[in-house]
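Handover notes (outgoing to incoming on-call)

Open items:
1. Membrane protein EpsK: sequence verified, structure written out, both below. Nothing else pending on this one.
2. Nothing else urgent.
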Amino acid sequence: MGPAAYGLVPLAMVFTEYISVITVSINGAITRFITIDIQKENWLSANKTFNTALFAMLAIILVQVPLLSYVTADVTSIFEVPEELVYDTYYLFAFTFLGYLISLLSSIFSTSMYAYNRLDLRKVVDLSRIVLRVVTIIICFTVFEPSLKFVGLANLIGALTAFIYAVSNWAKLTPQLRISIKDFRFPILKKLVSMGGWLIVNQIGFLLFLKVDIFVVNKFFGAEATGKYSAVLQWNVLIRTMAGVLSNLIGPMLLISFAKNKIDDVIRIAKMGVKFLAIGVGLMTGIICGFSDQLLSLWLGPEYAIYAGLMIIMLCHLVINLGVLPLFQINTSLNKVKIPGLFTGGFGILNLLLAIVFVKVFGFGFWGVALAGAIAVTAKNGIFTPIYASHILNISKTTFYKPLMEGLILFLFTYLISFITNSFVPISNWFMMTISGALVFVLVAISTWFVLLSETDKDMIGSTIVPKLEKITKKFS
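Membrane protein EpsK structure tokens:
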């Protein structure tokens, strides 16, 4: 579709994230309380929490319909939209917004999977949404023509599929839960909103950290620049998604341990999660940054090699900022969300101000937008988040810094090896890129095994992987 059209797709998706701050935040509180009720098998309380959340969400959806309708009808005055794309943009936003509203309901029914730590089922929900979306786009682009309206239609179909699957699993996992308006309770709603209020502040800060850049680039540099920026940003999104998978595995373990009052397990799981996330992200980002110019050339064309520096700015800080993901669940589990919300909101505003200053005052271009985000989010997650998590757990303030520093050192080492390899090995196709990246990965992975992993870490990995390998071997033998 070209960079100008492509730049409108993340705008539609990001806008739904901004207007969903209330619902996403309340969902965080809902998940906490329902998980604790289910783990304690308190079905009377669980039904009240579930139905209060469900009918409150339906009310929130109804309130948002007029706002979304207005934005769809007046989208050209809100965003920079090329004239030839106006008609398709209406459809893109309309279908995307409808899919978003459906996904809000899906999130309520998905709490059952979270409460039982059935993240395999939750990931099937996510996978089905993504696969259906991609398949729909490919079919429509092939049969008809590449168009923004088909991207919006794909978002809607993906959301519908995920909703059906979420409801099905909700019915299977928690048959004790029933939909009944009689179980709606205002005191429970007040409790959800009370905790969700500070989660809202935190969510707004999160969006100012990670999602304001698209708006800033669109407003200052136009739709085509937004498309180029968004294309490079996909590597950041990719790493965040992969890290989110592991973090989501750890989240229910932390919450369930807290529900059973096993604080020592909470601390142990959190340390393990931070260490493995930091090491994993450091390894991935080090390789991508080291080969950044060649990756962009092969993927988007040689003219995109000039954005290698932009890619490095977007990725180099993730080892810290994704390494701390398990610590966010500690705040929610212990219902300590006020101070993190204030800090996240404050640093989110700082990110926005820095982005404007770097663009308008220093003339850094959209490199300045990425740099502002890297500085603000790292300042918050690199200093405040580990210290606060240690504080509420009553443990040493340096507990979570050691695994983060190990991940940072690994990133620098991996980047250096990748950069040297990239400088001396001619890479002209995806085969050579794959071979070069794989060699660096194996070298660094072996070094990590012997240098950074303790015997406890190795035993944990072995006890997790070996049984699965044996199961696969028996299946095919």
